[in-house]
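In response to reviewer comment 3 from the previous cycle, which asked for concrete evidence that the modeling workflow produces usable outputs, we include below a single protein chain processed end to end. The sequence was submitted unchanged, and the resulting structure tokens are shown without manual editing.
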Amino acid sequence: MTALMWGTLAIALKMLLVYMDPYSITWYRMLVAAVILGCILALKGQFPDWRKLKGKTGLLIAIATLALTGNFVFYLISLDFISPGVAQVVIQLAPVFLLTGGVLVFGESFNRTQFVGLIVLVAGMLLFMNQRLQDLFSKMDDYSIGVVIMIVAAIVWSIYALIQKQLLKELRSESILFWVYLGSALVLIPTADVASVESLDALGWALLAFACLNSIFAYGGFAEALDHWEASRISAVLTLVPLLTLGFVELIHWWFPERLASENLNLLGYCGALIVVTGSAITALAGQKKVST
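The workflow returned the following structure tokens.
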């Protein structure tokens, strides 16, 4: 369920951008997530204590809020320039940046197999973009701008993830997410056009609802999967998200060609997508520690 949710999110956001701007979409997503998560925590008697947000912890929460807000907004801005499939392939750099940050900040190990996975991922990404590779490096057209912005989105996500890892020493993951969601909604108030929902038709409302609920169901499914499956298997399944996105794009384009454009990839492009997934899987699985029995 998590893979399907993340595999369709970029498509829903791309279609939603016809109705709303990136700041307004992100504001609604963060607000709904904060309200629902806050209600869940309150019902469980685990509502976060705001008094813990002081000193270093409060500062890290503030930085994490800005980083995740930046990730959401940059991701949407990028989708104004590139297709959902390209977005999902480029965002695969986020775990690579996280891995690099873990090595630099926390002194984590980076083994030889992970390095091979990184090389495979980058090679696959270049192959995936083979039709636009010359334009990407020779001129700053819409495609190049979109790719650069998506790389920035991946970088700020890795910053958020590194800060969250540090915060987990002081707070529960649900508490961190609640404060980040709430803080992001407050930060975006000056830039969000709250009234933009008034112009939504039935499809627009459906897309917004899906975008708002996506993260909650996706992360809920992710947490549940961890109770039943090894982390290595989960990582391997989630690396398939770009392929799911490419498949859903073609399916929706076939049904509603006026709503969503086809990716128009050549054979090398599809091969590149497979290689990106392979490199991502190698990097993820190589980082798993073997458990002796």
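Residues 202-228 form the longest helix (27 residues). We consider this sufficient to address the reviewer's concern, and the full set will be provided in the supplementary archive.
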